[in-house]
Amino acid sequence: LYYMKRFFRIALFLSAMVLHAQQGGMWIPSLLEGMNAKEMKTLGMKMSVTDIYNVNKSSLKDAAPHFNGGCSSEIISDRGLLLTNHHCGYGQIQEHSTLEHDYLEHGFWAKNLSEELPNKDLKVTFIVRIDDVTAQVLKGTESLNEQEKARRIEQNIAQVIKDASKEAWQEGTIKPFYYGNQYILFITETFKDVRLVGAPPSSIGKFGSDTDNWVWPRHTGDFSLFRVYADKNNRPAEYSKDNVPYRPKHFFPISLKGVKEDDFVMVFGYPGTTQEYLPAVAVEQIQNVINPARIGIRDVALKVQDEYMRKDQGIKIKYAAKFARIANYWKKWIGETKGLKKSDAVALKKQQEEKFAQTLQRTNKKAHYGQLLPQFAALYKEIEPYNLAYNLYSELMFRNVDLLSNAFRLLQLEQVLENKGVQSFESRKANFLKIFEGVFKDNDPQVDKAVFEKVIAFYAANMPKQLLIKSLQHFDAKQLADKLYANSSVTSYEGVARLLSLSPEEFKNQLKQDVAVQLALELSQMNDTQVYPTYERLDTQIQALQRTYMKAILELAKPSDRIFPDANSTLRVTYGKVAGYVPADGVTYSATTTLDGVMEKYVPGDYEFDVPARLRELYAKKDYGRYGTKDGKMPLCFLSTCHTTGGNSGSPAIDARGNLIGLNFDRVWEGTMSDIHYDPKICRNIMVDMRYVLFVIDKYAGAGYLVDEMKLVK
Ligand code: ARG
Ligand code: GLU
Question: Is 234 within 8 Å of 246 (Cβ atoms)?
């Protein structure tokens, strides 16, 4: 018995190790055969990988379109009903909202096809076929230098796309993978008539707002519904009232069975960018130099905004979206830095690099690749001040201070006048005025000034001294702010509009006299002459090294090393298990939440944590219909070990048999370093449970007719 026990313990230990190693990674759906297929089976998948991707018959990929280039989505009925996040459809919901019909505030539900709302500039793109075209793209490039090689690759890509077999309404694109060690062709179909069907109120779809953003435990019903329309032949078409609901090759059935710890989960979507193969020196730089700088500068900006927003309801409304935009990545970088430290990413990378060096020795590849790591070290050291300067400059000029970004825009317009002449200048004016109108709608000069004062002080204190402009070498931030905001025309819409109403000559003259424009000019000239050229030159060298480093990693790897390509906004499969985590010593998080948590967080009238009356009513009566659990709870969100990033918002979370169980919308804060280093212990993606989505549609909104259109699996 003892031996048996010990055997089991060892076996368990081994399988736990294997399972750990088996998570993370964003895989190409057409290349899952082999290692991935085996892992997915081990984790409990009951489909075969040809059910996920198949060119000869319908498969899951036919129901997972890219949503407007930035988010993911899925088709959930045979009439083109499409599900994505509330925060992905936010712009469209806002666009249709007026004071009388505020769909952000109250939600929106079309009662029939005729009430569905068309959207300008909204498209969804389906993938028809994925082909590896590496050989054709790299043909004839072997002996070329970097520049010639880039040009030849560009020509080859154009040729391959031209030659690819596709229908008249289809398109081809080729994307580099593994830093250009692999090229893949995507044949796609883009639908441009996509209509808004339903959205919950923000108090459900954005419940918890910025406070809960990136946070677990989570209680957000982050979903919205659209419908894809096609022409009479079921093909993509521009908007027309004669278009009809698209009949998809596949749509996801929705499971009502629910999830529990350890269940298989697969997420299928379009992750944007990751950097999983950086050398240790690069990770060190992000962790110790770049992140602290951009967190620090946003820190001071957000603190000022928050102070004013708390005191003044008008300012709160004006600054809500800007604050959310600045706070989203500010919060992400803080979590990322903590996670990198906690998981010892730099030390782990250094260990891997030592192994890499040893393997080179052993395999006689040292002559080929032996110089990579020392070269990385030298280049990253050299680029550090420029990288820091470039990041601080972007934050100062474009992210946090309206005065400077507006001044920069005016300088751009002056460039148009300079380079393209009066006619181009005149024809661009209207566009610029429109942009300024939008900016000043959400601007308060007092707040902008207070932000400027703190941000410019942070900037000057943290820039490498040799790259700091003269005007900021000895200065008083308060005095500078007073001077700029008292004398510049760029602090108000009227001021800017007046400048734009001048004759081209006068515009140029007065622009040069403006104190804020002068500062913006000095800053941008420093960047354009002293910072960016060097940054770009070194970065190009780093990218070339990274391509060679990636090639070496691929050559030396065994399949069990699980080398997946970094995210590049193409369709990927990631898989894992439903799992909670331990964010800190003594704290354990479970993998699921329920509506109980919404009521625990409820703050009447609060802009983040208010709960609509109808939802409170349903909660009080425990009126969950067929969507609640046997023990009377309403499930809300859940976690898994799937490896996701920005762009995966709206991705379907799929069970072992290909049914939809959840909708991806976020990651946990402690695990956001998964963009650089995935650690299965603390990296988790956050999904809203499909049962909650259906409950909100059916019981909360009374739109059960939409549920009737779906296929439910009990
Ligand atoms: N953190 C999520 C994602 O990057 C959701 C962002 C939208 N929500 C918000 N509260 N800002 O992008
Ligand atoms: N909210 C992100 C998005 O819009 C997904 C969260 C993440 O970065 O994983 O794509």
Answer: yes
Lowest mean pLDDT among 20-29, 217-226, 309-318, 323-332: 20-29
Q: Which DSSP string corresponds to 297-360?
A: HHHHHHHHHHHHHHH-HHHHHHHHHHHHHHHHHHHHHHHHHHHHHHTTHHHHHHHHHHHHHHHH
Distances in whole angstroms, Cα of residue 292 to Cα of each of 288, 295, 336, 391, 394: 6, 5, 11, 11, 15
Band (pLDDT 50/70/90 cuts) for residue 94 is confident
Give the integer Cα–Cα distance in Å for 499 and 510.
Answer: 7
**CA geometry: angle 473, 474, 476, nearest 5 deg:** 120
Any bridge partners for residue 662, and if so which? 653, 689
Neighbours of 536 (CB within 10 A): 12
Query: What is the C-alpha R_g of the chain?
Result: 27
pLDDT at 20: 44
Torsion of CA 6, 10, 16, 19, to 10 degrees: -140
What's the whole-number mean pLDDT along residues 291-319?
94
Give the pLDDT of residue 2: 37
Q: What is the pLDDT of residue 19?
A: 44
Q: Which of 649, 666, 674, 675 is catalytic?
A: 649
In the predicted model, what is the mean pLDDT of the chain? Answer: 95
- Please provide the size of the chain in residues: 714
Taking alpha carbons only, the member of 636, 635, 637, 640 closest to residue 685 is: 640
pLDDT of residue 13 exceeding 70: no
Residue 6 pLDDT exceeds 80: no
Provide the sign of the torsion angle of the four alpha carbons 577, 587, 85, 301, taken in this order. Answer: negative
- Closest-CA residue to 417 (of 490, 515, 506): 506
> CA-to-CA distance for 552 and 683, rounded, in angstroms?
27
pLDDT at 4: 41
Distance CA 674, CA 695 (A): 32
Distance 264 CA to ligand 2 centre (A): 21
Q: Residue 578 carries which DSSP code? A: B
- Is the Cβ atom of 210 under 6 angstroms away from ligand 1? yes
Q: Whose C-alpha lies nearest to ligand 2, atom 9? A: 645
User: In the chain, what are the helix, strand and coil shares in percent, each to the nearest 5?
Assistant: 55, 15, 30
125 has which bridge partners? 66, 190
Reported as half-sphere exposure (CB side, CA atoms, 13 A), residue 137 has a value of: 22
Q: pLDDT, tens digit, for every residue of 573-591?
A: 999 999 999 999 999 999 9
d(CA 181, CA 548): 9
What is residue 674's three-state secondary structure? helix
User: Mutate which of 71, 84, 86, 87 to test ligand 1's pocket (most atoms within 8 Å of Cβ)?
Assistant: 87
* 676 Cα: distance to centroid of ligand 1 (angstroms): 19
Q: Quick one: pLDDT at residue 17?
A: 42
Nearest to 628 by CA among 692, 687, 686, 578: 692
Q: Tell which one of 93, 219, 298, 328 to mutate to probe ligand 1, the residue whose CB is within 8 A of the most ligand atoms.
A: 328
Q: Inform me whether the pLDDT recorded for 7 exceeds 50.
A: no
Answer yes or no: is the C-beta of 222 below 6 A from any ligand 2 atom. no
- Vertex 575 angle, CA 569 and 577, to 5°: 140
- Tell whether omega for the bond before 217 is within 30 degrees of 0, i.e. cis: yes
Query: Which among 386, 348, 369 has a CA at the least distance from the CA of 676?
Result: 348
